[in-house]
Every structure is written in structure tokens, then in C-alpha cells.
């Protein structure tokens, strides 16, 4: 039986937000022999350019779903606009990027289609011909393997979920590009579907310290209080060209400003050394530190997910350990 | 104006947990801390802020799970929610927390909410335990109302019955959008500073009953997944653990940093 897959790509202001090869590689891996018949749907306003480029680099068919209302992300409209294409293609799998918007489109589609829904897929393997999808639970402390029971299977996929696969050779012939427009699917230009994008905003941020630092000492929930941030500052002050970073929780608690937040929705950093203090290591955070050369984690929870991406780990309570470390760094 | 906040009780992911013998969920020791899902704290606070800013606003809270979730619902009332409803998760008994299917949870909440015509429904952006990000949008799909996810700011416009939201995106961007009411918003952490319960509200919640709904079992055909199992994640790096006394570990780390010329 042929495995068929529909990849859904979003664009923002006619530009792709996620790299195309990630999802294509994952889609290929869905069939045990790596021979999935993949088609990509790209939604946006004027996206012929990105579509042609994707068709040339991947060799798969690209369906452009063009509408002025897709200039900015519109997961609400997308979940209705895709229905006709999905019914026509009747794919075994539908793959989206794992973002809150991707999850929303996936959830709405799964309700309408009666489909299986698995979000945040980190990897897949096969038991016989059946794919089993692995996702993180409890902040990455445990992995959950899920065998979907219904077709189609809708997946939101983490970056790098098919990284162990070798990139495919460039295709000899480019894929086709098929143009579609929303009104072809019974959605009229004045239908608002209750969600009207207005504008895109960028966080005002002139803080470049994280990008420029060789060392980042980063604080997470394990720091426990705003006062204890001083210990992190003290450690950083003893290291060469070091800056302070933070996990989402540490920023949400008001211990450090959001401009210091590292992760998927914050900053992506590439220091020589990343010293994670009391950071549990959610996938969201780890996405921001993948390019760090060395990661050292200190956490009192021996099961914390951060240890699985670290080079060195120390199980300790920070309030006891950091003063000792400061003392040792000040010696000689 | 009627607001519904959907709340999940979770076990603190940083407590000592192990995979349950049937590998379908985790087991926790007696010391494990069960509490309101952190993202739902922000969702509830956002609803309470609306209640304080406008007249004639009621805030109801709802939770699906075993009997113990009434404790978390009481805490929500202690913070200022007006009424609370508890729905038992079908087939799980009243005591054991476990994995709950997002499709089942969302259809139970939607079934309860549909006849009550809520103007705004809030959920957290995700649950800290199963991390699915799907119950909110699934409820919206069941009720056929618009939905905005990962909301980091919102403002009600009562005149034209809309709500303006900022949805967090990747890379320090956000998208602002207008939704017609009724609508569902999934709230991102950091949008506000959740309050602590007040003594007077806690006393009131003690005196108030929480209605419990015991739904019919879900037919097997409704289940979307054929199977799932939990395991410890594979380590994708070889992490060298530095061991010894606290003092010894500090010494080892200081030497490591010094050897790599990281110290001033």
C-alpha cells in the first residue's frame, strides 16, 4: 500500500517561516521504505516564488493555496480552506510544523475529519509496517510512543524529527506547482470565519548581550526567587565575556526581563559555553541552545530533561551549590 | 458576560515520577505536588481581570479528571471564580489520575458548555503533563467558534462584541488579530501575574458545592489512538555526571571552567 502524505506549510508576508526540507524528510520517513508520496500545500497571498523554489529543491508537487487573507497567519481559515484539498487527496498522513498555530489547525482538522491527532512529534520508528510516533511529556522527562488508530493521521512535527535520515539527493526534475484559490472551495472573499489578522508586531529589543557573549549563564525555575538571581550574576561576573540568560518560567516570574528569554519563542543562542542553572530543559528551551558548543547543567532533579542534551551534569540544589562554585572560582 | 475557564490538575513535572507498571502514565510518590496547570493559572487570572474591569461578568471554572481535581477547583474559587464544575473522566474511576484523551476531554467540556452560551472560553496554551496544545482548539471546533492560540495580550471590545488578541509567534514576533465573540482563547504564560487565593474567597468556596458530572463511558470506536506507552527518553548526548560532595562538585566544575579558559 502506498503511503501518501500532505505537508502543510504556512507563510508569513509571503515568506516561509519553517525550512521546507525538515517536513519533507519527515514525510518521506513515514513509509518504512522511505517512499512516501508527498504533496505540499503552501498557503499565502503571492507565494509563487517560494513554491517554485520548493518544487525545484524537493521534486514534490506543490499546491499553492492563495488568498489575500493568508498574508498573515490565519490558522482558523486554513483549517477550513484545507478541507477540500484533503478530501481530494485523501492522504494517510497530514504533517504540520509544531507551533501553537500548527496545533490549532491540526486539532480543528482532526475534529472535522475524525482523524488521529498527535502533536509535538520528536521522532518516529516502525513496528513492522506500522509507524510509531514519539513525543515528549512532562517537560521531556518521559517519552510517549503512540500508535495511531485512525486514518488520516494528523501530526505536528518538531524541527529535526527526521534528522537521522540522510538528506535526499537533489531531484532531477522539479515538482509541479498547482495553483488553487480559496473561493474555489466555497469560501468567499468576505467570509471572515471569525478570526481577522490585523498586523504583525516585533518585540522591541535592543539587548544584544546574549548574541555577543561567549558564555551564557542561564537561570530557570530552580533558582526559586528573584533574590537568587544575584548568585547567577555573580557566577557570570567571574567568567570571561559572560551574559545572563533565562528560561521562559524565570521571565514569567518576573525574575529577569523577557529580552533575556532563550528558546523557540525567545532568542536562539550559540555560545561557547551554556551553563544552565535550574533549567528543566523543555523542547521549547532546548531549541534555542542547540548551537551551543558545550552545555553544562545544574539541576536538583536527576530526571530533568536538560541532562539529556548536556555535556556535563551536576545534580545539586542551586542555593547550596552556586555559593560554593563562586567561592571556588574566586580562589587563587 | 459569561466566561468559562478550563482547568487541568497536573502533578508537578519536577517531582519524583516513574513510569507506571502498565506504561500508560506516570506514578508519583505521596509527596508529589498536584496543582493547577501553570498555563491555566494565567488563563484564570485573565478571566478574573475581565471580571474586575467590567460589571455583570461571571467566571465559571471546569475541570475533567478524578475526584481530587475538586481541590484545584476550590483553589480557583479561592482566587475569585464564581462556580465550579467537575467532570469525571470516563472509565478512570474517581481516584487514579492518568492519561486523558484530548478528544474525549474536549467533547465533554463542549457538551457541558454548549447550552450555557459562554461569551469567552479560556484555556491554558498547553498542559504541563501531556503537552498536547489541543484541548482548547478542539473545544472551539466542537462549539464551532473562532479560536486564538498562545495569546499574550487581549482586549475586549464590548460595543461590537469582538476581542482583540496578540498571539505569540516564533522569533520574537506576535500577530494581532480580532475575533468575533463567542470565542476561545488559549493563554500563554507571562500574560499577567496570577494572584493568590484570598481568605474570604477560600471560606466562600468551602461552603459552596462543586457539581460533579459522571458521564457515560466512551465507546471504544471513539478512541483515536490504537495504543501508547511511556518510557524514559533516549539520551541524545553522553552527559558526564560530576559526582561527589557538594564541595567536591563545585571544585570539579571550577577546575573544568578554568582548564577551558572560561574564568577571568
What report would you give on this structure?
Chain A is an alpha/beta fold and 332 residues long. Chain A folds into two domains: 4-185, HUPs (Rossmann fold, 3-Layer(aba) Sandwich); 209-330, Rossmann fold. Chain A has helices at residues 20-28, 48-58, 75-81, 83-89, 100-113, 209-212, 229-237, 248-252, 283-286, 318-330, and strands spanning 4-12, 15-16, 37-44, 61-66, 93-97, 116-127, 130-137, 142-148, 153-157, 177-181, 195-202, 215-219, 242-246, 273-277, 294-299, 312-315. In chain A, strand 1 (4-12) and strand 2 (15-16) form a beta hairpin. The longest helix of chain A is centred in the N-terminal third of the chain and has 14 residues, at 100-113. Chain A starts with a strand and ends with a helix. The model of chain A has no long low-confidence stretch (mean pLDDT 91). With 264 residues, chain B is an alpha/beta fold. Chain B has a single domain, classed as Rossmann fold, CATH 3.40.50. Helices cover 27% and strands 29% of the residues of chain B. Chain B is built from six helices and 15 strands. In chain B, a hairpin with a 6-residue loop joins strand 3 and strand 4. Chains A and B meet through helix 3, helix 5, strand 6, strand 7 and strand 8 of A and helix 4, strand 9, strand 10, strand 11 and strand 14 of B.
What's the total count of β strands of chain A?
16
Q: Can you tell me the residue ranges of chain B where pLDDT is under 50 for at least 5 consecutive residues?
A: none
- Give the helix tally of chain B: 6
Q: Which topology of the largest domain in chain A does CATH recognise?
A: Rossmann fold
Give the chain pair forming the largest contact, with residue counts: A-B, 97 and 84 residues
Helix content of chain A: 25-40%
Q: Output the CATH class name of chain B.
A: Alpha Beta
Low-confidence stretches of chain A: none
Radius of gyration of chain B: 21 Å
CATH architecture of the largest domain in chain A: 3-Layer(aba) Sandwich
CATH architecture heading of chain B: 3-Layer(aba) Sandwich
Oligomer: heterodimer
Q: Which CATH first-tier class of the largest domain in chain A would you pick?
A: Alpha Beta
What is the straight-line distance between the termini of chain A?
69 Å
Strand content of chain A: 25-35%
CATH homologous superfamily annotation of the largest domain in chain A: HUPs
Mind summarizing the main beta sheet of chain A?
Answer: 10 strands, mixed
Number of domains of chain A: 2
Amino acid at each position: 500500500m502506498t503511503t501518501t502524505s500532505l505537508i502543510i506549510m504556512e507563510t508569513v508576508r509571503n515568506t516561509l517561516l519553517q525550512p521546507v526540507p525538515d517536513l519533507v524528510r519527515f514525510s518521506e520517513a513515514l513509509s518504512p521504505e522511505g517512499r512516501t508520496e508527498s504533496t505540499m500545500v503552501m498557503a499565502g497571498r503571492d507565494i509563487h516564488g517560494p513554491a517554485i523554489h520548493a518544487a525545484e529543491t524537493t521534486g514534490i508537487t506543490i499546491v499553492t493555496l492563495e488568498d489575500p487573507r493568508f498574508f498573515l497567519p490565519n490558522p482558523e481559515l486554513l483549517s477550513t480552506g484545507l478541507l477540500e484539498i484533503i478530501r481530494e487527496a485523501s492522504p494517510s498522513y497530514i504533517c504540520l510544523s509544531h507551533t501553537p498555530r500548527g496545533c490549532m489547525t491540526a486539532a480543528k482538522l482532526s475534529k472535522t475529519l475524525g482523524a488521529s491527532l498527535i502533536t509535538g512529534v520528536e521522532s518516529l520508528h516502525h513496528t513492522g509496517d506500522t509507524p510509531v510516533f514519539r513525543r515528549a511529556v512532562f517537560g521531556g522527562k518521559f517519552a510517549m510512543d503512540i500508535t495511531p488508530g485512525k486514518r488520516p493521521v494528523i501530526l505536528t512535527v518538531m524541527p529535526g524529527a527526521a534528522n537521522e535520515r540522510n538528506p535526499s539527493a537533489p531531484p532531477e526534475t522539479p515538482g509541479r506547482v498547482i495553483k488553487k484559490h480559496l473561493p474555489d472551495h466555497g469560501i468567499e472573499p468576505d467570509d471572515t470565519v471569525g478570526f481577522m489578522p490585523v498586523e504583525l508586531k516585533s518585540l522591541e529589543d535592543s539587548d544584544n548581550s546574549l548574541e555577543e557573549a561567549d558564555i551564557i549563564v542561564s537561570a530557570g525555575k530552580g533558582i526559586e526567587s528573584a533574590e537568587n538571581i544575584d548568585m547567577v550574576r555573580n557566577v557570570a561576573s567571574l567568567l570571561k565575556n559572560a551574559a545572563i540568560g533565562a528560561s521562559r518560567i524565570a521571565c514569567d516570574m518576573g525574575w529577569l526581563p523577557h529580552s533575556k528569554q532563550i528558546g523557540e519563542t525567545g532568542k536562539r543562542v550559540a555560545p561557547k559555553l551554556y551553563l544552565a542553572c535550574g533549567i528543566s530543559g523543555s523542547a521549547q528551551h532546548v531549541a534555542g541552545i542547540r548551537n551551543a558548543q558545550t552545555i553544562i547543567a545544574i539541576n536538583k532533579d536527576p530526571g530533568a530533561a536538560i541532562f539529556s542534551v548536556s555535556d556535563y551534569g551536576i545534580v545539586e540544589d542551586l542555593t547550596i551549590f552556586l555559593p560554593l562554585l563562586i567561592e571556588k572560582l574566586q580562589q587563587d | 458576560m459569561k466566561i468559562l475557564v478550563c482547568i487541568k490538575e497536573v502533578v508537578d513535572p519536577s517531582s519524583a515520577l516513574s513510569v507506571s507498571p502498565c506504561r500508560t502514565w506516570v506514578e508519583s510518590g505521596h509527596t508529589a505536588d498536584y496543582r493547577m496547570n501553570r498555563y491555566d493559572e494565567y488563563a484564570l487570572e485573565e478571566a478574573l481581570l475581565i471580571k474586575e474591569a467590567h460589571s455583570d461578568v461571571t467566571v465559571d471554572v471546569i475541570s475533567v479528571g478524578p475526584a481530587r481535581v475538586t481541590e484545584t477547583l476550590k483553589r480557583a474559587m479561592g482566587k475569585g471564580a464564581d462556580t465550579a464544575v467537575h467532570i469525571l473522566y470516563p472509565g478512570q474511576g474517581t481516584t487514579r489520575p492518568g492519561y486523558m484523551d484530548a478528544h474525549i476531554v474536549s467533547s465533554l467540556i463542549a457538551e457541558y458548555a454548549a447550552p450555557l452560551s459562554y461569551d469567552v472560553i479560556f484555556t491554558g496554551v498547553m498542559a504541563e503533563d501531556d503537552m498536547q496544545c489541543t484541548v482548547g482548539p478542539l473545544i472551539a471546533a466542537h462549539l464551532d467558534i473562532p479560536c486564538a492560540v498562545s495569546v499574550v495580550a487581549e482586549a475586549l471590545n464590548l460595543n461590537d462584541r469582538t476581542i482583540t488578541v496578540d498571539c505569540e509567534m516564533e522569533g520574537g514576533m506576535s500577530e494581532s488579530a480580532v475575533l468575533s465573540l463567542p470565542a476561545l482563547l488559549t493563554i500563554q504564560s507571562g500574560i499577567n501575574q496570577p494572584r493568590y487565593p484570598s481568605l474570604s474567597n477560600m471560606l466562600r468556596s468551602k461552603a459552596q458545592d462543586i457539581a460533579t458530572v459522571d458521564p457515560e463511558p466512551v465507546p471504544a470506536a471513539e478512541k483515536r489512538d490504537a495504543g501508547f506507552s511511556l518510557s524514559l527518553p533516549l539520551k541524545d548526548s553522553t552527559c558526564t555526571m560530576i559526582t561527589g560532595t557538594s564541595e567536591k562538585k563545585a571544585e570539579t566544575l571550577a577546575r573544568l571552567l578554568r582548564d577551558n579558559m572560561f574564568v577571568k
